[in-house]
Design a protein that fits this description.
Layout: E1 10-13, E2 18-29, E3 34-42, E4 46-51, E5 55-58, E6 62-65, E7 72-73, E8 93-96, E9 101-110, E10 117-122, E11 126-128, E12 132-135, E13 139-142
Parallel strand pairs: 1-6, 8-13
Antiparallel strand pairs: 1-2, 2-3, 3-4, 4-7, 5-6, 8-9, 9-10, 10-11, 12-13
Length: 150
Amino acid sequence: MLFTQARGRAVMDLATAETVGTVSACTVAPSPARIAGLRLNTKGRGHHALDWNDVRSFGPDAVVVEEADRIRDEKAIGPDDAAHPAHDPIGKAVLTDTGLDKGTVTDVEFDELSGRISHLVTDEEQIPGDQLIGVGGYAVVVTAPQPASR
């Protein structure tokens, strides 16, 4: 699934069957490359985050969380936490570990059951998820392609 297809998807509290927000963005982590968290727009409460581990299911119509108290205020999340907004890759430059510009992330292709990232989609190419090294405030860093051996 492409992450842009999940934007706007409702987030439902399983305990109350109420919608507690909508998916607005994601954060990612390397080793293995995976969705680390979902950034949410919540009614009257601003921006919040949900750790991927707290997602009970990621369905075609809604994301289900066990309880709404699993949702955290983004202001309380430190920069070292994979759910921090700085780890949102979409719109960031992609640089290799050798300094080569690979474009800008336009989407993230992932498995909605496991959260595993299969590809980072840029305006130039699709980069395999296993090449993800890290995401920071400025850029996404991936391993440089190895030259073909002769």
